[in-house]
Amino acid sequence: MSLEALRNVIEMENVAVDWDDLFPRLVAYIEAQGAGEAYQAQFPDVTALLDSSVEIASVYARVSALHLAEQRGALHVPRVPAVDLSFLQQKPSVWDAVRKIGRSYHLQLTQALTELLTPPPSLAFAPRNETDDMGAVILQLEEREDAPFTFTLYQNGTLEVEVIPAGLAWPDLAGSRVTIEVGTRRESQTTDAWGLVLFEGLPLAEIGKLAILVEVVP
Fold first, then answer.
1. Phi then psi for 49, rounded to 5 degrees?
2. Do residues 46 and 105 both lie within one domain?
3. Residue 194 falls within a domain, yes or no?
4. Contact (CB, 8 A) for 195 and 163
5. CB contact at 8 A, 26 and 63
6. pTM, two decimal places
7. Who contacts 191 (Cβ-Cβ below 8 Å, separation ≥6)?
8. Domains of the chain: total
């Protein structure tokens, strides 16, 4: 017998009694009674309360009726449909925040989004190669098959944006326009033949406010 299920159907606000203590014993009293046991001897305090309180006797009557209905299989329990929690398994992505208008892509970073861009430790502490001084990777937007660009931010404040329009490949990737805005700085560049642009000296403390606009060549 479900104590919570029975408790939910009973209004106890007007009864001056500690129901957290009494209710389980009242249910046990009713169950012992239904099993033909010496319930009054087992629960003399409950018997005394039933004799002295009309409110408790009323609760007893309703709980007893519910218990009897449950024993007979006549207690209707609403069928609750299963809840689809599959969305909880979906990993959030920065791409969900990218707005696409025609051949333009706009991304406005926030502090929460930058946390999704943090690369794994194996990448974060590895410079691109032994000859450059860009330092470790700070943020990186993962590639996606249906998106034409990605970017990487390095420890020295350099932002590298790569744009590869659909159907094109190296060295025919020149011409896409990339605009960034962070703080008071706004700058635009056009990709080279390898689809790359570099923005140097970005203030790392304000990266959480970085906006990127990519206009892909036809």
1. -65, -40
2. no
3. yes
4. yes
5. yes
6. 0.57
7. 161, 162, 163, 173, 174, 175, 176, 177, 178, 197
8. 2
Tell me: the pLDDT tens digits for 78-120?
Answer: 666 666 656 555 667 888 899 999 999 999 998 888 888 877 6
Q: Which domain holds residue 181?
A: 93-215
In the 8-state DSSP scheme, what is residue 89? G
**How far apart are alpha carbons 67 and 62 in whole angstroms?**
9
Q: How far apart are CA 127 and CA 166, in angstroms?
A: 29
Q: What is the pLDDT of residues 134-179, one digit of tens each?
A: 888 889 998 888 889 999 999 999 999 999 999 998 999 999 999 9
**Contact predicate 157/137, CB 8 Å:** no
Q: Are 214 and 163 in contact (CB under 8 A)?
A: yes
Same domain, 104 and 211: yes
Q: Are residues 103 and 181 in the same domain?
A: yes
3-state secondary structure of 185: strand
